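Justification of computing resources. Each target in the renewal requires a structure prediction run like the one illustrated here; the chain below, 306 residues long, is used simply to show the kind of job we budget for.
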Amino acid sequence: MHQILGKIIHNVESVIRGKRDAVEAVVAALICGGHVLIEDVPGVGKTRLIVALAKSINASFGRVQFTPDVLPSDITGFSMFNPKTREFEYRPGVIMNEFLLGDEINRTSPKTQSSLLEAMEERQVTIDGVTYPLPELFMVMATQNPIENTSTSPLPEAQLDRFLMKISIGYPERRDELEILYDNLRDPHELAAVARVEHILELRKELKKVYISRQLAAYIVSFVAATRTHSGIQLGASVRGTLALAQVAKACALLDNREYVIPDDIHRWLEAVLSHRMILKRGAAYHGVTLAQAIGDIKRGLSVPK
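Resulting structure tokens:
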């Protein structure tokens, strides 16, 4: 199964150059069954990354360009009256796909944003009192632009907490950008599949078998608990953050073809898993304190189990 992970990563990297860590992060989230928020400036490959991942495993894919006039029913679907049967019938929305790309999620209204809450947590949608299950693989990957605030609605903490990770891609190195210029990278929509959805579901079963020692589990709990008492943090990470950190650490072990977690697995994506679940105190930012620094403080203050 580790070979399948390597094939997926290599396939995605054929259209995304020099961003191995971002590619592995979204693959780790996929193994965990979690959702990813990608916050970055325009034009760095956010959409390409998401499309390439879906194409690599031949998964169904739906895309929503969020704008202020997008309605919840555009996402979840709606009931329509059929005059022939004289009954209401469910018309599925774009959410009935294995991958859902929510582009610029902070540009739509809070009402529409909240339509994703049930789907992201319980993997189902409820329309007119009837519940419809989502595909087993279901994964939301949303993007947002951090530098534009006009006509935007920041995601509330309750919804941010439902994202397993929040990552950024960043600008490529000069040598990678030169390769992008001369190689004329392939269209991600043209990628051939190198794995199947069934492979990912099998990897999720393998994830449950990855061993994490009691000492490392206690270290994760202590780390998350420390975010709630740090002097610069107003709101620490939730229990969902504790579970997410353990899951991502296990996925990191799988990526490295190991059946057990080591401390480096916990540390690799600390900021990606925890930062969006925390809020700085009002005066902290004024004094130059960032969430990344707060996480670093906690890391230095805790002894790592041997």
